[in-house]
């Protein structure tokens, strides 16, 4: 029977896992501190260590009123009336809260603009319906 070459490796070296203890760590540290780095012995410049501070790219979150103002403003574009009024009001209140918290007021501005467009559309519709009722 042939021996499997992968499993038949014989070695004279006794391999034992070494457990790190404080004596081993201290002896390694002393050996490392006593040696001069190769770059210093050859008068070469040492690379500088660069520290990079990673910050969270997201700022404070928008308030719930800003989100509600945007949603109601968009709904008000299709269903004139109360959603437009609420979207406009929630947008204004949400923008004030976002400015105090240092958050972006983009959603609140969207609520204000879409709410205002919905209000203008609602007023045009009321005038058109009123004029049609008066002419008949």
Automatic annotation (TrEMBL):
Q: Does the keyword Phosphoprotein apply?
A: no
The record's annotation in InterPro entries points to:
DUF4190
Give all residue intervals belonging to the DUF4190 domain. 65-124
Q: What is this protein called?
A: DUF4190 domain-containing protein
- For the region Disordered, give the residue spans: 1-57
Any Pfam family the entry gives: DUF4190
Task: Give start-end positions of Low complexity composition bias.
Answer: 42-57
Transmembrane region(s): 67-93, 105-134
Which keywords, in A-to-Z order, does the entry hold?
Membrane, Transmembrane, Transmembrane helix
Biased composition range(s): Polar residues: 19-34
Q: Which organism is it from?
A: Periweissella cryptocerci
Asked whether the UniProt record includes Disulfide bond among its keywords, one would answer: no
């Amino acid at each position: 029977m042939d021996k499997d070459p992968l499993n038949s490796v014989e070695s004279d070296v006794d391999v034992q896992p070494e457990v790190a203890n404080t004596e081993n760590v201290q002896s390694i540290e002393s050996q490392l501190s006593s040696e001069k780095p190769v770059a210093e012995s050859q008068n070469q410049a040492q690379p500088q260590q660069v520290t990079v501070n990673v910050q969270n790219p997201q700022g404070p979150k928008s308030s719930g009123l800003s989100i509600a103002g945007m949603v109601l403003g968009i709904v008000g574009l299709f269903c004139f009336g109360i959603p437009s009024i609420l979207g406009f009001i929630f947008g204004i209140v949400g923008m004030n809260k976002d400015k105090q918290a240092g958050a972006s007021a983009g959603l609140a501005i969207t609520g204000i603009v879409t709410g205002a467009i919905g209000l203008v559309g609602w007023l045009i519709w009321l005038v058109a319906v009123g004029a049609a009722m008066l002419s008949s």
